[in-house]
Amino acid sequence: MRQLLLLLLLGWVPPGWAQPAPAFTVVPLGVKGGLAEGNLSAYLVAAAGSPGYIALDAGSLRPGVEKAVANHVFTAPVEEVLRQQIKGYCLSHPHLDHVAGLLLNAPDDAPKPIYGLPACLATVQQDYFNWRAWPNFGNGGPPPALGKYQLRALVPGQETPLENTPLSVQAFELSHGPGMQSTAFLVRSRESYLLYLGDTGADEQEKSHYLRALWRAIAPLVQAHQVKAIFIEASYPNSQPPAQLFGHLTPVLLLRELGALAQLTGSAALRGLPVVVTHLKPSPGNEAIIKQELAAGNALQARFIFPEQGVKLVF
Ligand SMILES: [Zn+2]
Q1: Number of domains in the chain
Q2: Could you list the residue range(s) of the whole structural domain that residue 244 is in?
Q3: 20 pLDDT band (50/70/90 cuts)?
Q4: Ligand 1 centroid to residue 141 C-alpha, Å
Q5: The CATH number of the domain where 52 resides is what?
Q6: Cα 200 to middle of ligand 1, angstroms
Q7: Please, which residues have CB less than 5 A from ligand 1, an ion?
């Protein structure tokens, strides 16, 4: 018995006790919901053990890769990670704080696809890649089209392979304020899933049913413990007046949405589920209040994670 205890203390794992191997590697390149120009929404995701990443949003790229390289998350130099290890981009919506890193690094980037819902891609092509806001790095729009990026429209609810990775993605529409569409990406690696929500308001405020539909779609996967992590925003503290939410969530609204998911799955399915909280607006005092409000309301016992730029996560 003492020998077993010693072996356990030394990190020996008896056969059959092993944790399931992780399915995803995530490298947050930017985590803040505004203000911090060098640290805006962008999350690299890869199948565990694969060197090919997809960027979920691209608010800040280079500063995040620089930090990750300094943290020994990557062994390749910054340029090579940006050009070669990022195999493509999934853009949730075309707000500048989600695309600025992609635009600014485009001149030095290697050719690759940009995935998104048609309306998001149309804005990127027409309003950025138009030779007025920025050169036309797209494959349509005003000539000459440089064709560095292939804009690949996703069809909601239909799975699309992410080129040069073992991953595939399914897009779900979200509502991000009046007339503003956003997207949730359900990324699959074999039998495992990672759900990333771009900016979103709550169904009640948005007068929409998009989150309800998303929860219905993923509920069976959550019940089967195939969803390894959910990335969802909490931009403002609970004190933010409803008229000034601008299509975002607060802790109480996020918790209410998790409650809506739990109604479909049973609350046991959410216990310990990693919920990565994104897009906290870094105004003075804001982030500490959001963290405290989430912890205080966490009756479902989800595992809230607050990502840090350049610090690897595995799920
Ligand atoms: Zn936005």
Answers
A1: 1
A2: 21-314
A3: confident
A4: 24
A5: 3.60.15.10
A6: 8
A7: 95, 199
